[in-house]
């Protein structure tokens, strides 16, 4: 499956989680339940994956952690905030750049309808 196909399945799982739990919980709760649902779909999920960052000659082995990476292709950043802001988008894009990923989903579970809290983040070339 390509990134877009995985993303579509992940979004369905996220909507299911959100319908069950509703808004207002901590990010960690949504991350754990979403990872569980994605694994039920048969995908590999890496949680809190370290992202090494290199700047000139300085190499930080674990500069940041991605909330989730699905099948080694799709980055998921989970939020539970009042509103997504440009900085959340920029941070996700930066994580993707350093990790070498092309597609990410920035998901804010603290909304009435999850579709209003999802932003696709694309880095680099066009996706298949």
Structure description:
The protein has 128 residues and is of the alpha+beta class. It has one domain: Trna Endonuclease, Chain: A, domain 1 (3-Layer(aba) Sandwich), CATH 3.40.1350. The protein is built from three helices and five strands; from the N terminus they run ααβββαββ. The chain has helices at 3-21, 27-40, 86-99; strands spanning 45-55, 58-70, 74-79, 103-108, 118-122. It has a five-stranded mixed sheet, with helices on both faces. Helix 1 packs across helix 2.
Could you give the topology of this structure?
Blueprint: H1 3-21, H2 27-40, E1 45-55, E2 58-70, E3 74-79, H3 86-99, E4 103-108, E5 118-122
Parallel strand pairs: 3-4
Antiparallel strand pairs: 1-2, 2-3, 4-5
How would you summarize this macromolecular structure in one to three sentences?
Helix content is 37%, strand content 32%.
Q: Can you give keywords for this protein?
A:
single chain; 128 residues; alpha+beta; Trna Endonuclease, Chain: A, domain 1; five-stranded mixed beta sheet; 3 helices
Looking at the structure, what is the overall shape? globular
Structural class, from secondary structure content? Answer: alpha+beta
Q: Percent helix among the residues? A: 25-40%
Give the biggest beta sheet.
Answer: 5 strands, mixed
Distance from N terminus to C terminus (CA atoms, Å) equals 10 Å
Helix-strand string: HHEEEHEE
The helix tally amounts to 3
Mean pLDDT: 92
Number of domains: 1
Beta-strand proportion = 25-35%
């Amino acid at each position: 499956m390509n990134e877009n196909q995985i993303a579509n399945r992940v979004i369905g799982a996220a909507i299911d989680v959100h319908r069950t739990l509703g808004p207002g919980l901590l990010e960690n709760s949504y991350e754990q339940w979403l990872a569980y649902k994605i694994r039920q779909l048969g995908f590999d999920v890496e949680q809190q994956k370290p992202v090494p960052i290199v700047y000139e000659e300085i190499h930080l082995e674990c500069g940041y952690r991605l909330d989730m990476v699905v099948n080694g292709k799709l980055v998921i950043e989970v939020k539970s905030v009042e509103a997504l802001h440009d900085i959340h988008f920029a941070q996700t894009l930066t994580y993707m750049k350093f990790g070498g990923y092309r597609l990410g989903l920035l998901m804010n579970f603290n909304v009435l309808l999850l579709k209003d809290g999802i932003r696709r983040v694309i880095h680099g070339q066009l996706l298949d």
